[in-house]
Specification:
It is built from 17 helices and 14 strands. By secondary structure, it is α+β, with helices and mostly antiparallel strands. It folds into 3 domains: 47 residues, Transferase, Pyrimidine Nucleoside Phosphorylase, Chain C (Transferase, Pyrimidine Nucleoside Phosphorylase, Chain A, domain 3); 235 residues, Nucleoside phosphorylase/phosphoribosyltransferase catalytic domain (Pyrimidine Nucleoside Phosphorylase, Chain A, domain 2); 89 residues, Aldehyde Oxidoreductase, domain 3 (Alpha-Beta Complex). Strand 4, helix 10 and strand 5 form a beta-alpha-beta unit. Helix 4 runs parallel beside helix 9. The longest helix has 17 residues.
Length: 443
């Protein structure tokens, strides 16, 4: 086969055969197909898409480009959660230990920041010493010992996706349903899970900015999970403003600690409990999502969830001192304030602009090999719906970059829209997507 002809076929809207898909993916993993040709393939796919059959085959090939972990020797129904990415989305950090504290094993293989969104691995690695790069044997030991493990992709797990993930980030081919679905599900199906809960974002700060696109992605993900025999539930959740108040790797980690202590922002706590309730239900430790929510609240209130997180961090080499005393964490060289331009109410906060601003501050990547500054970020002081007075602080930002510290101020300030009247509120959790279809979410 000829790689150029395969790229041309996809570019012109053709449907690739299983053999053609296998040729290009296997060739990339083995180093035969160069990165620039894969970049062209990704861009062609971005514009032309894939059929359902192509997407399923793409996922299968990505999955079987490496090992599929067997956790059958570990008691219990293993359940994971995946988010399609959002600004301020630190949910995995409090969620995983909460669910594990409820008795449901959580094997979690996560990714790094992608585009304007943060990554769970980058947040975990903001904890000094935390090792996300452990072997599969160690992965099995950790979950066997404490019922929870959080790592990144190893060279054995979906290596095609591991290489392609970073390339998508820097070739502007992230927002593509087949590529997103194949990437997510190949990792999740490889990690040894029995069931999966999906958080599919919608809105200005999401990759899928319209509700219809988000539903389409959720249905693709649920369809793939179901076809592989994994019970899969998706939630469509709002990403028109950041989750919580912290945007940036360390400050989001610190906010996650507050959530585990029961003091987190109301939106972060709400979403954590809903997703956790679904995971606990799928893990057969509750009969309904609502019952699962109550179980999650209980382990936060009695301190078992925070204890579980400390055990995880210690087991994977991290220093727990900063989690117990976040104020001791190193500070950025520059700390600046953003003030309100007028009296009124915060009518909206542009998540996308703030996510891109954090990258400029040093908290994200524009190239595959960029080194992230975990201290860099933005801390909101006001959210949509809050009343403000002219000159009142609405956000703070942190960076070590002297070349950007003043120039970025206008961009961050521009993300806040202020109007005279209080805006209408919209639900955080909008819909549920499962094998039976799409329904509005109700507590």
């Amino acid at each position: 086969m000829n790689v150029v002809e395969i790229i041309k076929k996809k570019r012109d809207g053709g449907k690739l055969s299983s053999d053609e898909m296998k040729f290009i993916i296997d060739g990339y993993v083995k180093g035969i197909v160069p990165e620039y040709q894969i970049a062209a393939f990704l861009m062609a796919t971005f514009f032309r898409g894939m059929t359902k059959d192509e997407t399923a085959e793409f996922t299968r090939l990505m999955l079987h480009s490496g090992d599929v972990i067997d956790l059958s020797s570990i008691p219990g129904i293993k359940v994971d959660k995946h988010s399609t990415g959002g600004v301020g989305d630190k949910i995995s950090l409090p969620l995983a230990p909460i669910v594990a504290a409820c008795g449901v094993p959580v094997p979690m293989i996560s990714g790094r920041g992608l585009g304007h969104t943060g990554g769970t691995l980058d947040k975990l690695e903001a904890i000094p010493g935390f090792n996300t790069n452990i072997t599969i044997e160690e992965y099995k030991k950790v979950i066997s010992e404490i019922g929870l493990v959080m790592i990144g992709q190893t060279k054995e797990i979906a290596p095609a996706d591991k290489k392609m993930y970073a390339l998508r980030d820097v070739t502007s081919t992230v927002e593509c349903i087949p590529l997103i679905a194949g990437s997510i599900m190949s990792k999740k199906l490889a990690e040894g899970i029995d069931a999966l809960v999906l958080d599919v974002k919608t809105g200005r700060g999401a990759f899928m900015q319209t509700y219809e696109q988000s539903v389409e992605l959720a249905q693709a993900l649920v369809g793939i999970g179901t076809s592989f025999g994994k019970e899969t539930i998706g939630f469509i959740t709002d990403m028109n403003q950041p989750l919580g108040y912290a945007i940036g790797n360390w400050i989001e980690t610190a906010e996650s600690v507050e959530c585990l202590r029961g003091n987190g922002p109301s939106d972060v706590m709400e979403l954590t409990y809903v997703l956790g309730g679904a995971m606990v239900m799928l893990g057969r430790k509750a009969n309904t999502v609502n019952e699962g929510i109550e179980r999650c609240k209980e382990v936060v209130q009695n301190g078992k969830a925070f204890e579980k997180f400390l055990a995880l961090v210690e087991r994977q080499g991290g220093e727990t001192a900063y989690l117990l005393h976040p104020d001791r964490y190193p500070r950025s060289v520059f700390q600046k304030e953003i003030t309100a331009s007028d009296d009124g109410f915060i009518s909206s906060i542009d998540s996308l602009e703030l996510g891109l601003s954090v990258i400029a501050l040093g908290g994200g990547r524009t190239k595959v090999d960029d080194i992230i500054d975990p201290k860099a970020g933005i801390l909101l002081k006001k959210k949509a719906g809050d009343r403000v007075k002219r000159g009142e602080v609405v956000a703070e930002y942190f960076t070590d970059r002297s070349d950007i510290v003043d120039a970025i101020k206008t961009r961050i300030a521009g993300a806040f829209s202020i109007k005279a009247s209080k805006p209408d509120t919209s639900p955080l959790v909008i819909s549920v997507v499962d094998k039976n279809g799409v329904t509005p979410f109700r507590y």
